[in-house]
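Let us work through a complete example step by step.
Step 1: write down the sequence.
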Amino acid sequence: MNLDYFDSFFVVVEEGSITKAANKLHISQPALSAQINCLEKYFQVSLVERSSKGVKLTPAGETLYEEGKRFTSLFKSMSNKIREHAGEGTKKLYIGASSTIGNHALPCSIFNFKKRYPQYDIKMKITNSEEVANLVMEDKVGMGIIEGPVDKELREEFKISGIQTKRLLYDRLNVLAPYGPPWAKRDFITIEELFNQDLILREKSSGIRKTIEQTLTNQGLDPSRLNMNMELNNSCAIINAVKTGKGLSILPKNAFKQDLVYEALSSLVVEGVEFYHPYTLLYHPSRLKDFLHREFFELLINEEYCFC
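Step 2: predict the structure and record it as tokens.
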């Protein structure tokens, strides 16, 4: 049984609601409900009563909460002491991350990992995908996460350097525009409209730019038709430039979702063009023999917990 499921159960009890607990744990409600269901199947008893008002513990649930708290605390303490004897108590993990993942998703994952393993120190360097790949190949970081397509030439470099890759997920790039006329009430933009707009884009070596150009090329469209008004190497700087009316851009929606909530930006889909944007984990297999590297690797490849 995964001990994380016990921790999730404790948060549900303390928050009194699946919804509130899911928000606090930074996972989806269905994923959290599935964890509670796993506990109930394991013990073959109902642990909570669900209603529109929240959750209420059954007698069995009360026992699990009271005894489980003591059990997990004791188990974690024992595990930490054993790892210290194995010389694993002071290790550091260095990670390279491209800007979208590094700025918007990975910090929360590191925070959750540190709650479970407070004795470990994790350092993250945020840069573009090309530089992250170089850091991993030069063995300056334990693992790296890049975004955008990985071409044949780069795969060959990884092979020579002994690096393995694992696709973590696909995101989608959307057009972001200032909130207000003519974009506020629109969901779509045509490709011809996009070609006629002043654009603020990431630099050529970024994964985002590679996704944009490869997608257009694959659809028989010429990337040089993009009317680039400005090139910036920072997504946050691009977002601020779009807010102030300097042009439109194309970025992962996760990078500017907060601005959508506050109606500072509009998000548009390009009609007939899907900018699917992959995130790829780079790692040296030999590093996974180390406990810290292996545990963080397992976190990243777990769909429920990898990113917040």
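Step 3: interpret the result. The chain has a mean pLDDT of 89.
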